[in-house]
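User: Hi! I'm working on a homework problem where we have to compare a predicted structure to a textbook description. Could you give me the structure for the chain below?
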Amino acid sequence: MFLVYLLGALFAVIVGASFDVVKFLFVYVILFTGTLSAMYNNNYNDVAVDRNATQTVFSGGSRILVEHPELLKIAKQLSLSFLGISIALGAVGMFLFSYPVTFFVFIVFGNVLGWYYTAPPVKLMYHGLGEICTMLAVGFILPGLGYFALAGQIDASYVVLLVPLLFQGFSMSFYLELPDREADRLGHKNTLVVRYGALFGFVLGAVSTVLATICFFIYGFFNVTSGGINYWLVGLFSLLPLFFCLYSLVKYRADTTKVDLLAFRAVVSFFIFYIVLVGYFLFVIFRS
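Assistant: Happy to help. Predicted structure tokens:
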């Protein structure tokens, strides 16, 4: 969460914004409390599903509420409390830093998306929209808040970063779902992996990552400029998750028993890419 938020903030600095530590930290607290709300809420609503899930580093739920059902009421209260804090801080931030009203709309949209990911009556995850939610969270909301915090708006410059991150967010959604596919099926979660199988998830994950990498190379080919970023180099960085996504697809076709390990490696490769990209963005900022 912090890595992708930081990416958006650093990108804003690269394209001309000033780094304001107060704005950066204040908006991050808004994001942090909203994420806590979504986490508690999703654990609360997914108790039945998590009973059948195998816990991994990135999936399977925390199992705390499965093993301690007496905490269900507290989890619900915490979720509502953090939701209120996040939205209230969004309103305060809008007035404190003279952000446009779209900033508050952005905060509300992110919180509503996180809340109704599993909460009734919408239950986006249960109605075939889980992948879209993850794509929007990773590719739009998290980096978008970082960008908004320092740039004060979402403008055309941000679209350059937005498009490939959306593709990567969509790709990552499949690797996060793959280890939980059986538990999700039993819990009636209507994910694409549940509907069409693990192979479909590996294929679509790889295709989406290919599209993200192509975006970066297109930027390089057409000399898209964003404050000195070399998009050919960013494209080369993005070959890391691309390799692991394609590798996972090939290895799964050869051995269908290693789904969890292959999905884990793919997710880790995305995190490494984000770390490398943060380092590169810092290099671009300090070089100039």
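For your comparison, note the following. The two ends are 27 Å apart (CA to CA). The chain has one domain: 2-287. Good luck with the assignment!
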